[in-house]
Description:
Elements: H1 3-7, E1 8-13, H2 20-32, H3 43-52, E2 58-63
Antiparallel strand pairs: 1-2
Amino acid sequence: xxxxxxxxxxxxxxxxxxxxxxxxxxxxxxxxxxxxxxxxxxxxxxxxxxxxxxxxxxxxxxxxx
Length: 65
């Protein structure tokens, strides 16, 4: 197993299940990195897609501390 695999977890989630901590972290990442400024990366877009397509799986990648 590579060190990247050992340090990362992947979960399949429904966007409506993201807690405020996860949403706040994403907003911080998005604010800090101009390459994430696209509206397609916004939480509002994610929520709209989730409402329209409940059958679409979403992946949540997290670095383990």
